[in-house]
Amino acid sequence: MTSILAWLDHDTKARERTLRILNLFQERESRDELGLGVIRDSFTDQLFPGTSTIQTRLRYMLFVPWMYRDLERKNVPAKDFARQAEEHEKALIVVLKAARQTGIIGKLAGSALKRLPASIYWNGLGVWGIRLTRLSQEEYHQRIDALLAQRRALADRARAARERGDDADAVRDQAATWHPCLPAPPPDFPKVASFALTGEEAAFLRDRIRESCPHSLLAHLAEKVHDIDVAAPWELSGYGDFPVQHKELLHHARLFSELMHGAALLYNVQLAELSGARTLEEHRQALMTWGKALPLHELRHWSLERLRELVDSPGHRVSPHTHDFVRKWRSLVLDAKQADLLDNKAARELIRQRECFVKRGQSRFANRRALEQWRGRSGTGRLRYRWATARDLLNDLYQGLDRRGKHAGS
Predict the structure, then answer these.
(1) Is the C or the N end of the chain the one with fewer CB within 10 Å?
(2) What mean pLDDT is predicted for residues 244-249?
(3) Any domain includes 408
């Protein structure tokens, strides 16, 4: 990956964006066979910014800065910084396993783990305003000597400012890496650790979400405890009382999920036919079941122009070809009899052309080797926009806030 990204070294934003895209291929819910990931990710980043499907527990948002802040205070030089950080992270895995915690990243892989928590949470730490440096993780490791030197120089300037009666904090904060209100770790950390947030820690994380992502559904749900034991965010019991922008976004996200699920199912039907897979009948039945449950009235009156407005943004450029594919698929679904969609030549050809366009030489329709590597199903899950991850993080937050309330009341 280093060689692939070398040309991006001069552009931190482009590098971070490219790393996130490449990392998606390692995430367990990211199978995007028909090139719809940019729309999925646009919805997700508006609803639950800073999350990733391979995040597990919320307290990692504190473990990572605690570790790095400790290394900074010890003035660990750049030549040793990345190595010592990795050693700290792998040692934490052992501590958490001994404490019988659930949701440990690297519990099974152990020392062979390729993606450590700091890498997985780095983007979220920035999005939530906990990480103040805009450097990539690799750049942060490489430039730590310069950062610490700058911090020492600014500390001298801050002392001089205090002597003059000026604002010393404003000078000192110019070199801050982490939010100044980051709670201190427990005195026995990292020798002892768990995922249970203290009340202070939960309040800090809630405030960071609220201040950094104020218009997100995540911030709304973080404000107070909600019943979040549902399969999708649009099934939340408080949906009717959500702010208008959240209801509209969820409405479009739900219809997009409902509609395009059928495209993924038909794709799997076609692959099963081509490969002679035993899963053919399973996929045929799934497509029939999907068709019978479709909210046809809503889909018929769904504004695809408004969908375009909602999902197109500087960070998520949806190509005209992708919008056109969604439009054509909807037209075919609405015009075809559901019982006939399985054998609809136009629908099948649309799916084939789209997959060939997205995958080029790796198309399973055109590349026999690629077809042989297909494992019987791919990308058949309904889009939930990282809801499972957001739900887990919110559960951790709610438990921490509950401890805070009990402590305040005692």
Answers:
(1) C
(2) 98
(3) no
Q: Tens digit of pLDDT for each residue in 356-367?
A: 999 999 999 999
183: preceding bond cis by omega (within 30 degrees):
no
pLDDT band with cut points at 50, 70 and 90 for residue 23: very low
pTM recorded for the entire structure: 0.88
Q: What is the span of the domain harbouring residue 107? A: 59-194
In this predicted structure, the answer to whether residue 307 has a pLDDT above a threshold of 60 is yes
Say if residues 331 and 287 touch (Cβ distance below 8 Å): no
Nearest to 58, CA basis, from 300, 390, 287: 390
Q: Specify the residue for token string 């921490």.
A: 400
Please tell me the total count of domains within the chain.
2
The listed range with the strongest mean pLDDT (258-262, 315-319, 400-404) is 258-262
**CA distance from start to end of the chain:** 53
Quick one: residue 310, left, alpha or beta (phi over 0 = left, psi -120 to 50 = alpha)? alpha
Q: Which residue do the tokens 């999925």 mark?
A: 40
Do residues 32 and 369 touch, judged by C-beta distance below 8 A? Answer: no
Distance of CA 361 to the CA centre of its chain: 29
Q: What percent of the chain has pLDDT over 70?
A: 87
Query: Using CA atoms, how far apart are residues 377 and 247, in angstroms rounded to an integer?
Result: 32
